[in-house]
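Our preliminary data section would be incomplete without showing what the modeling component actually yields. Below, a chain of 771 amino acids is followed by its predicted structure, encoded as tokens that our downstream tools consume directly.
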Amino acid sequence: MSSYYDQPTSPGAMSPRRLTNRNTNRYSVTHLFSMAAEQDMEVQDELARAQKRLRDLKGRISAQSKRNFVLERDVRYLDSRIALLIQNRMALDEQNEVEKHLEEVDPTEGQYPDDRKLQQYSNLFFLLQSEPRHIASLCRLVSLSEIDTLLQTVMFTLYGNQYESREEHLLLTMFQSVLSAQFETATEFGSLLRANTPVSRMMTTYTRRGPGQSYLKSVLAERINSLIEHKDLNLEINPLKVYEQMTNQIEEDTGSLPENLPKGVTPEEAAANSDVQAIIAPRLTMLMEIANSFLVTIIDSMEAVPYGIRWICKQIRSLTKRKYPDATDYAIGSLIGGFFFLRFINPAVVTPQAYMLVEGVPAKYPRRTLTLIAKMLQNLANKPSYAKEAYMSQLNPFVENNKTRINKFLNDLCEVVDFYDTLEMDQYMALSKKDLMIHITLNELYNTHSLLSQHIETLSPNDKQHLRILTDELGPAPPQVPRKENRTIELQLYSRWETPIQDIQSALLDSVTSSDMLYMETKSIFVQLVRSMPQIADKRPYNLPQIAERAATTKDATLVRRGIKVKEMLRELEELKIVDRADGYKLMEEEVGAELVHLGNMREKVMLEMRSLDAVYKTIVDHNTYLRSQLEQYKAYLQNVRMTATKDRGAITGVDVLKVGGKEKKQSKQALGPYRFTHAQLEKEGIIVESQVPDIRRPNIYFNFTSPTPGTFIIALHYKGRDKAILEMDLKIDDLLEKQRDDKHLLDLEYVQLNVPKVLGLLKKTFARRN
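Predicted structure:
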């Protein structure tokens, strides 16, 4: 079954009025036959093949997004645990727990629940999926430490098909419920949606799904990449930092500072310095120009913003107006901006590498520029009366000049129609599907079961309610299985309280006249026949009897069956005086032609969307590779710690500290290296991010990497022909891991700056196997 999420058509095309009773069902049947004309199960033309490839691609993006979410959770957990290890505060049993987070799932290990339990879980998860209010309530009840695991199940499993309209709309219905409760309990307007709560975590996680990632890449990637190409463009406007940079440069050039430029000045003194002001003035102009280019790009891309994100903005506006009827448009806009910019746009601007928009970490100056741009966009969206940092007030003209424009944009974002009518149809259709299923791990199954059991009195106080009945029947939740045994199972979803619909067309006949049904089905078959016989597609007006006859006399059994059937249907419609042979069945012919024009235009849109999503999928897969490499580094680190712990007779003291500054270094018998790398090699691999070595001298520069003991390293910079190193740096692998944990991605070797993640990768590749 197709849906508008299978196609790149705008949700804005849907009828804005609320349809009920007969109207709803007539609309639903029209929708049903329109979908039949678009689906690829019966027709095999170019559009059908492209739609199938697009659906497959969207399925792969959904599945890969979940894998990345799980890996990111693992990396976050290990970052925090490694921090304890770095500080020598982790016991041996805690190390073993960390090690378990690095185990791969073994598909041969682990037990499935028995058939009875599986049936109960099938009923339970159908109920949870189709009635989102239960999950919405649960999300409000769990703690912040529990929310990530629940979000994994909700965002990537229960509603994991990110491009399928029914699941997407059910998920948005859940958001509406959660947001509504958030507004009901809010005590302060300014803190709404800004605190780090389970609800805000939900909203951020939602933006990281496939459609959100696709938008960020298509809209921001080019703009950010063009900015970070200018590695030496320094746009710092903090007077204190500008003063320090200026005096450092003067001292480096002349060897001393004049008396009128003392060190250790106050921010006010720095801001009052005329030279500092002269440096900052052109930077302010350039920053405002760059921020304006970002803003124009974002505003111009409004139609590309995923429907779900726009719909959440619409709910924020609606709930704010109800809760705070006296709130101004600007105040309402600041709440919408708090979601759209704070949770969606700005994190990608500040750390584009984490959102897979750029390769590697931007250099120091572009990184700072991106941070300033994000601050400017946030100030514009929040419309504060003052800047948190005094120096940011210098950029107030940008805020003042764009207030009206941003407010219009934030309000226009909300102008999307609701989906309740199509959701009603989708839910109805779901009962006719025999393949409604989710792919869920045993631990997701048991964790959701456990959380429901903990909060069942609040979720379902009445023991006659369906959720309570299913939870009581399941009994206590099984414990979490070891990571190695956490298999993924295919869980069929069905309801024990709803009767499956065997024939959707027959089920709707009671509310739509038989002549309406006959007309729509006839039109649908003609559309399919023209698509199946492309040689007649361009011959307008269509001779419908001739098309039916031609199909009925082909060698294709399916076409023959349809041709004979549609000839009879056309005759019946003529007897009912709904169509007329005398005018060449003009009404039917025009509607068939219009449907085919729509499908022809759709093919171009499908191909365009497929090209865009191909790039998104490649990026997501690349990010998966990066996350896996991080986990591999943790494995190597833990192995080194265990070796050191054994050597020290069980004392968990981290890795031996090497003494620095020319003092004696302890070299064990396990010393490895030196391994030699040229400046050009490290630059090509992206390990050297910045270099102050003059181009003419770079061919004579090389680096020696040595490991005196497991987990400890010496990086020495050499010049050909000289015996002694120009400089040496002693470090432990936990120094690098700590930098990575704190998002400090640069290692300063005075003459060169190295990329920390890539240095870790090089050390692993060079020493782990030999260790």
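The beta strands are 437-441, 488-492, 672-678, 688-691, 701-707, 712-719, 727-732, 746-748, 752-755. The radius of gyration is 32 Å. Preliminary results of this kind motivate Aim 1 of the renewal.
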